[in-house]
Amino acid sequence: MAELDIAEVAQRAGVPASTLRFYEEKGLIASSGRRGLRRQYDPGVLERLALIALGRTAGFSLDEIARMFAPDGQPRIDRQMLAAKAEELDRKIRELDVLRDSLRHAAACPAPSHMECPTFRRLLKAAASGPVAMPRRRTPGPP
Amino acid sequence: MAELDIAEVAQRAGVPASTLRFYEEKGLIASSGRRGLRRQYDPGVLERLALIALGRTAGFSLDEIARMFAPDGQPRIDRQMLAAKAEELDRKIRELDVLRDSLRHAAACPAPSHMECPTFRRLLKAAASGPVAMPRRRTPGPP
DNA sequence: GTGCTACTTCAAGTCGACTTGAGGTCAAGC
DNA sequence: GCTTGACCTCAAGTCGACTTGAAGTAGCAC
């Protein structure tokens, strides 16, 4: 039989079981049944979890991802949305490119203080005028 | 006289006054005095706020940024830290590059369902094996 | 001197994605 | 049959960066 125990899904998908329960509560995944208390999953859940991980990586929220599944569970991904996200990502990448180069310069800059480095000052001006949203990192941390 | 009122600093720096108070509480900025109750700022605070914005953009936390100022208020930025952040940023950029390209492909892909597109499936596998931390957006929102 | 209004303080609330803790249950091994 | 341990539920907590709300106050115009 092909049913997977929650522990196995957790292990294979690389997420804690608590996350699986949380996703279920949010309607992102479904368990195919129970053995006693324990959730059993259809192997297809792994693909679905991969899809969720992908969506998260692309910057979609869990709610947005939830909307990407048709009621029957089939992914129903709006191509326009993907294209829009790709463009958004592209803009962000460009910004990060500039930032990375500037950081590198600042790191290598021979000016005695960063405030005396023209490149650094230019960076500052840019930062002052065009703030970019930047992230927190996901740090699940140890038990 | 060159003192700026909190409202003016807020306006010029493009952040709400509440943020300035919050930053002060965190020790990131300091007001130069008061006129009555109202905070007055030295114009240098604008540069400092730009520095903070820059740091945020680069992915530093407020606490990390706080540590980038010497007790005398002068920025004291560790070049090694900058270089490390630049490398971190570079890795992230590469990941996002791949992701963007894949999203674009998926958006343009002629397969009837995404699950039948080989590129999409490859993407999925990658997402499943190497999860990437991705951000929340800063959405200050309307009053 | 009175009002208006933009500031002030301080505590508490928000957002998203989970995690943690307390107390309970059950399949399996001995 | 009893223990063990991994799962269960449900509520509450966490993290970071702020925002919001209530209640108070001072500078300025009149």
Q: How many domains in all of chain A?
A: 2
Strands side by side in the biggest sheet of chain A: 1-3-2
| Chains forming the largest contact | A-B, 54 and 55 residues
Overall CATH architecture of the largest domain in chain A: Orthogonal Bundle
As an assembly, this protein is: homodimer
Low-confidence stretches of chain A: 135-143
Provide a count of the helices of chain A: 6
Largest sheet data of chain A: 3 strands, antiparallel
Structural category of chain A is: mainly alpha
In round numbers, the mean pLDDT of chain A is: 86
The portion of residues forming beta strands of chain A comes to 5-15%
Principal-axis shape of chain A equals elongated
CATH topology of the largest domain in chain A: Multidrug-efflux Transporter Regulator, Chain: A, Domain 2
